[in-house]
Amino acid sequence: MDVGIIGCGTAGAASALALSRAGHRVTVYERVPAPAAIGAGLVLQPTGLWALARLDPAVHAEVAAAGAPITALRCETPRRRTLVDVSYAEVAPGLCGLGIHRGVLFRALFRAVQAAPVTLRLGVHIDTLVPDGARHALTTPDGERHGPHDLVIVADGARSSLRDDTQRALHTRITEYAWGALWFVAPDPDGVLGTRLHQIADGTRRLLGLLPTGQDPDGARVGSIFWSIRGDRVDAWRAAGLAPWKADVVRYAPWTAPLLTSIERPEQLIYTSYRHVSMPRWHLPGVVYLGDAAHAMSPQLGQGANLALFDAMVLADCLADVRPDAPPPLAALARYSAQRLRHLRYYQRMTRLLTPLFQSDGGRVLGALRDLSMALACKIGPLRRMMVTTVLGIKRGVLRRSLPLGPLYDPPRLLP
Ligand SMILES: Cc1cc2nc3c(=O)[nH]c(=O)nc-3n(C[C@H](O)[C@H](O)[C@H](O)COP(=O)(O)OP(=O)(O)OC[C@H]3O[C@@H](n4cnc5c(N)ncnc54)[C@H](O)[C@@H]3O)c2cc1C
Fold first, then answer.
1. Could you tell me the residue ranges of all domains in the chain?
2. How far is the CA of 9 from the centre of ligand 1 (A)?
């Protein structure tokens, strides 16, 4: 097939690698003229690591070598009352996630795309899909036309403008969250962030996140700091200067003091907002939506990049038996949507449910209810297990069987 992919982020780059290897003719359109290795830390869960290893073992090895193993997730109140304290080893010994600098993941995928038989069109902003018989052409705001392609993969991220063309056909629902996060990647030469993802939640209006992030693209050991904030309060936060914020962070997590010394101006912390995108299915004839374009969610459960990698892997599997002379593979795309349904719905519903408990104006009362119920849930065996498997990225429903851990649980292969 002739495949056009819009966006060279996690989902776009991963699907370009998988589909070019399967013998399809692939063109990637990326609006940024010179993509760079920037961004905060994120956690690659066993699901994302597995998908990455299957998509490209060399990319997986490069990413794994630069990441920091994450063995546990701890969330507590400022008074050190435990809300969540789960370790990956509770599911299988040696299992872990990987804290990774987004730039490292991006660079590894991007270099592999550059080396693959893929036509890479940088600095091309696609804003419309135009039906052309059974195919689709792509156009830019100044009327440049590209394609047509047998299959178009829309992977242009949470703020996709391509969804608008088909929104009515797919009944896409988009909700903006009022709350987002400020983030900063700090040098952490002594590894004070250890090996766990650590959160301190003070009511629902304050949340500090600390993530060991491995090496940055220059090879320095770093950690990521996240600070929850409502979008309309960012200017006031910046105007107040860093002193009161640093005092709060050190009060919540005294061991972070060495990381804070590299923050000298409020502008060094970058604000990112979240949105929730939901579609009843992720395909139309000749078009499929992947990654955040298809199912953006708040990063509360740290699954977005993992789901994007998993999308790319499942799509490549669903297209594996499409013959080059076959018509546009509607049945294969329908199979893709069906296979992704439970996994994606579970994480969309859980993030929608959990996000206001950690980031909202609910304040002390909602925060106290959350503290009580989460601390209790952590002590009840089945609920605790549900927490761990949710973090692992393998859940497909509250009562449904999870994705099999068998192929996932191969630490020597997942983490050299
Ligand atoms: C604060 C924060 C923390 C997070 N933490 C985690 C975590 O711990 N674990 C995790 O798995 N995920 C995490 N995520 C989510 C994760 O970053 C995203 O889900 C993931 O990057 C989505 O990948 P994508 O390829 O769908 O989109 P993107 O990475 O956004 O890529 C989209 C690409 O499309 C390009 N593009 C956009 N529009 C156009 C256009 N019109 N034409 C051509 N190109 C275009 C963009 O330039 C970009 O390169 C976090 C997100 C945030 C905000």
1. 2-67+100-176+275-359
2. 6
